[in-house]
Here is the input.
Amino acid sequence: MELARKLAILADAAKYDASCASSGSKRSRSSKDMLGDTNGVGICHSYTPDGRCVSLLKLLLTNYCIYDCRFCVNRVSSDPPRARFTVDEVVWLTVEFYKRNYIEGLFLSSGIIQSPDYTMERLAEIARRLREVEKFNGYIHLKAIPGADPALLDRAGRHCDRLSANIELPTDEDLQSFAPEKTIETVDLTMSCIKDKRDESRAERKVSRKAPKFAPAGQSTQLIVGATPSTDTTILAQSSRLYIQHKLKRVYYSAFSPIPHADGQLPATTPPLIREHRLYQADWLMRFYGYTASEITTPDNPDLSLNLDPKHAWALRNPDFFPIDINKASRKALLRIPGIGVRNVNRIVKARKSKRLKLADLRTFRVALNRAQAFIVAADWSPPDPINDPLNHEEEKTADTLKHAPEPARTKHLHDAGTAALFGEF
Amino acid sequence: MPVPASPIHLLDPKASYDAFLTLSASLLLARTPPDAIEWNDSESGAGSLFDPTLTPDELASFPRIDEHTSRITERLGRRGKLVAHHADPDRWDLLYRIAYRLSHGRERDLLNDILDPDTRKLETLSHHVSRDMHKMKAFVRFQRVRDAEDEQYVAWHRPDHRIMRLIAPFFVGRFGAMRWTIFTPHESATWDGQSLTFAEGIPADQVNEHDQVEELWKTYYANIFNPARIKINAMVKEMPKRYWATLPEAQIIEDLLQDAPARVRRMIEAQSTSAGATPFLPPRDVPLTVLAEEAQACAGCPISEMATNTVFGEGPPNARIMLIGEQPGDEEDRAARPFVGPAGQLLNHALTAANLSREDLYITNAVKHFKYIPKGSTRLHRRANPSEIRACKPWLDREIESIDPDTIILLGATAGQSIFGAGYRLHQSRGHRLTHPNIRATIYPTIHPAKILRAPKHEQPQMLEDFIQDLRTATQSPSPS
Here is the structure.
C-alpha cells in the first residue's frame, strides 16, 4: 500500500484520541547533530476546521486490533479499511514533518496486534529508533498498552516524554459491556507502574543529573463521554481518583462521535459536545480552583447542567458563600466567583495593593461582570440588599407567587445572573 | 527645547533599542520631560541610526552614562525589549514616558500598578509581540530546496512585528542540525550550521519551492480532523487568515469544509444501516413458511442484491435440534437450499456418523444471502462482514423463536458472532455448553464443515472425527432442566 494511503487511514483512525498536548517536558540539544528541542511550552502548529490544535503527528501504528471495544472504529468486528505502518515509515514521517516545522513531535498509538506486549514493544522500538538513530529530540507521546509488561513500559518511558494509558470508560460495568477486554484494574496497574517509575527516576535525578529521565511530561488518559449511561458524578469521581492516585497530568474527555461501523448498540447521534465542554470546565475546577469532585455535582443532579457552567451552578447552590468582597477576600474565595478566572484573580490580588478596586477596574481586566456582579462587593458596589430593596418587594407583589413559595431575594438575584450567563459564552 | 527627530534603524530593532536606551539615559539625566521630545520612527529613515542631537562623545561625557543606561534597561525589563520590536510608531514615546515616570515621577512602583494606562499599554504591546513570536514558531513552514547539494530549507513568513532577530535563536535551537533561511518582508535570517546572519527581506513570490512532503502533510491534515464537530471560529481565532497564504494545509480548508456535511452523513449512514432486515419482517407468530416467503423480498443489506435467492432455513417446524451455519455458497444460492454443496455433503456424512437424521433437524444459516465477487464465469465466496451479519440477525431470531429448539449447534464463528456478538471466539467456546438470556435452548459451538475441506489432507480425518464427536456430545447430553 502506498504511504499516502496508509497515512490517510491511520491518521483518520487516530483522530478520536483528544490529547494533543506537547507541553511539560524540556529537552535542549545537547549535541550538534541532534534534531529539535522541546522547551516546556507546547506549540500548536496548525488548527483544523474542528477547532482543534495540531501539535503532534497523531497516528496509529496500525488499526488492526484484536480487541472489540464497541465505541471504537478499529474494533475487530468493525470493517474499516485497515493498514499498518512499518517502523521505518513512522520514523521517516516524523522526521520529515518535524524538519519542515509542521509538528512538535509524534503521538503514537496502536490497535492491539497479537498481544499487549507485542504491540508495546513495537511502539517502544519506534521511540528508540527516533532517539538513538535519528537523534530526534522533539516530543514523543506513546500510548501505554494496558497490561503490557513493566519491562516494556520501562523501555518506552526512557525514550518518550509522555506515556498514557486510556481508561476509556469510568466503571468496570461500562467496560464489561463496551470494552470487554479491558478492566479498570489492568489500566490501574499500568498507570501505577508508570507513576512508580517516574517517581523512581526523579529520585535518582536528585542524586545525579545524569540519571535517565522517565516520561518527564507525565501521564494522561482519556474517557469517552456519552457512549454509556454513566453520570457526570461517576466520571468526575473517577477523574479525581486518577489525579490523586496516579498523579495524572490530564484527563481528556471525548464526546462519543458517530463512528463509521460503530456497533448498532450505540446511539447514532451527534456527539454531546456541550457535555464534554462542561466536563472540561469541571475538571479545571478540580485542578486549578480548589473544588473537590463531590462539590461539583449533587445527588439530586448527578449530571452537570448543560445550560450553566459548573462554577456558576455551584455559586447558585451556595448563596450563603456570597457576596465576596474583592478588596478583602482570600485568593481561594476569589477563585469561587463566577466569571472570574485564575488570571483575573491574580490581577485583582496584585492591583488591590495600590487601590480599592471598583467595578470599572474589573471591567478593565475584562471580568465577565454580567456573571460576576451579583456575587461580589467592590468599592463602589454591593449587590441589592434582600430586605431593603424596594424593587424586590414590588416584584414579590406582582409576581405570580400563588403556586410557588416566594424565592428569597438573594437567590432570585443570583438566578438572574444565571440567566445572564446563559447568553454568555459557552 | 524639543529634541528633534530620532529616526530608527529599521533593519535592527535591537540596535534601535540599544540606541534608544543610551539616548534616554542622557535625556533623563538632563531631566527632559516626555512631552518635550518627538520620537520619529519614519520608514524613510531606514538605514540611519538614531540621530540624537548629542554626539557619542557628548553622550559619553555624562557621568556614569552606562550605569544609568543599564538601570533603565533593567527597569523596562523584558517587556521593554519586546515593545521595541513592535510595529507601533508610538512605542518609543511610551517607553520614554515610562522610563521618565520611573526615575523622576516618584513612581517606582508604576509597573506593578496594572491599572495605570501606560503600564497597561506596555503590557498589551509586549503581549502582541510575544504572541507574534509564538505564532511565528508555529507557522513557519520550511520547504526543502530542490537541487541543493546538501539538505537546505527555506521558509517565508509574514510576522506582524519586527521580530526576526528575537525569534531566530529559537529556530537555531531547534533546527541547528539543518541549514536554512527564513524570509520575512523586512528581514531574513540564514543559518549555515555554524552561524546566524541577517539580511534584507524579500517579497513572498520570490520563494516558490515545491516540496513533495507537503502533499503528505495535507493528507494528514485532511484526515486528522473530525467533520462531525466543525468549529470554524475556534480555528480562525487561533490561526488567523492572514497567515494562511504560507500554510500549505490552508489551501485545502475550503474543500474540507464543503465536504464535511457529506462526510458526516456517510459516517452516520454507515452506522444506521444496522436497521437491516427489521423493516422486512412479517408480524410475529406467522408460520415458518410465511417467514421463509417474506424473506425472499428482504433487501436489508447490500448483498441481497448480488444473490440469486434468499436461502432460508429448512426442516420440520417441530424440530428439537437446530443447526446454524455461516451463509449460503454458490450451489446453495442456485438451489435456494442450505447445505447442498460440498460442505453440505460432508455435513450429511457427519450427521449419519453421529446417528442423526437430517430430516429431523432444522438447518439454517446466520446470513441468508450468498456474498461473492465475480471472477470470469465463477463467483468467489466472500465472508459476510459484521454489519451484514447484524443486518440478517432478525431473520435468525425469528427462526429460533418459531422452532424453539432444545439444542442449537453453531457451525463456525459467524454463527456464534451472530448470536453472541462480535466478541465471540470459537476457539474459546468450543467444547463448552453455552446459554443465552433470550434463548431457551442449550447452545453447542463447533467448527463449520467447510473448514475441514480447506484443511491440509493429513489433518482432515482427525478434524472430521472431532466434528462428529461434537455433534454426538451436543445431541446426546441431557437437556437442561
Notes: The CA atoms of residues 180 and 284 of chain B lie 75 Å apart. The two ends of chain B are 113 Å apart (CA to CA).
